[in-house]
Amino acid sequence: MTAETPAAEPSVYLDYLNRWDIEALHFSDQEILAAAEQGLLMQGRGETEIEPRTHIRPRAGADGHFNVLRGWIGGDVDSAGVKVVGDFVENYREGRPSEYGLLTLFDPRIGAPKALIDATGITEMRTGAITALGAKHLAPRNPKVLGHIGARGTAYWNVRLLCGLFDFDEVRIHSRRPESREGFAARLEADLGRKIIVTEDWRSCLEGADIMVEASRLPEPSPHFLTEWVKPGALVIPYGTMSAVELSLTDIMDKVVMDDWGQAHGVFGALRAHVDAGKLTAETLHAELGEIIAGLKSGRESEDETILFWHRGLSLSDIALGHAMLAKAKKIGVGQRLRFY
């Protein structure tokens, strides 16, 4: 090669994992929790960069919107990532999931893309993992009753992973459509090998539960979840897109924890009104979950504490889980390699 001959530009390839590739990985509950916990730990240690999610609403009166999540994780993961999720509540009418997701991972050293991953299942898994990890650090020592509102994709992983951590005497579920809640219960009973109690309303599902999870799909904010149903010492985890809780809910809490305070502002979220009204601020927030996992802040300190954990969903969890899945896929020969450049 002479001085006049330019060096050939390096090629760029990216790995592609579709839905069937993700299923072929047979990711275990422990692998899901470990990946999500790694992301939270690194967030707590300050080894990440995360941007508040943004939303794209394609037209007036649409039954859904797009969530755009962005972030970077250092260390062994060392990936930047962007996930776009289409969240369309009426998709069930066509037999479709309510959410479709796509995760793109980038090399943070040169900016080139390195992976394209179906994130529909990742979104469901990592949401359940954050619910479960929050409960691991914030729930009472021996919770006996789980009350869960909602039967969408993330709901399955909420219940499954929580049941893997705790020995509940009762697991109660409720959702708006009878066929949805009955089908959800049947799937859980088949997979978990335990009885699931299907309730006819919110109150009979939630009242007196030790862990109360609200993952509803309301068309607009409406107080379906009443503060008076929360018993002292309970852990409350509301994360519906549209708020289903009363404004008084934060008044009875000894601690409020989030996955990331930067996600507290925006258009949607279970505690949107509480932030707007000044009931939840950076000063009144006890901690981010990553700070608790990293040992920088306290989790539950007594059985009498009533605690609320609000998670909005982090790009970091998607990136960490996507990275772990990509590593396993390469190890067992799953997926496709595409020429990009």
Automatic annotation (TrEMBL):
Pfam families noted in UniProt: OCD_Mu_crystall
InterPro entries on file: NAD(P)-bd_dom_sf, ODC_Mu_crystall, ODC_N
Top-level lineage group: Bacteria
GO terms for cellular component: cytoplasm
Stored PANTHER family: KETIMINE REDUCTASE MU-CRYSTALLIN
Protein's recorded name: Ornithine cyclodeaminase family protein
Organism: Pikeienuella piscinae
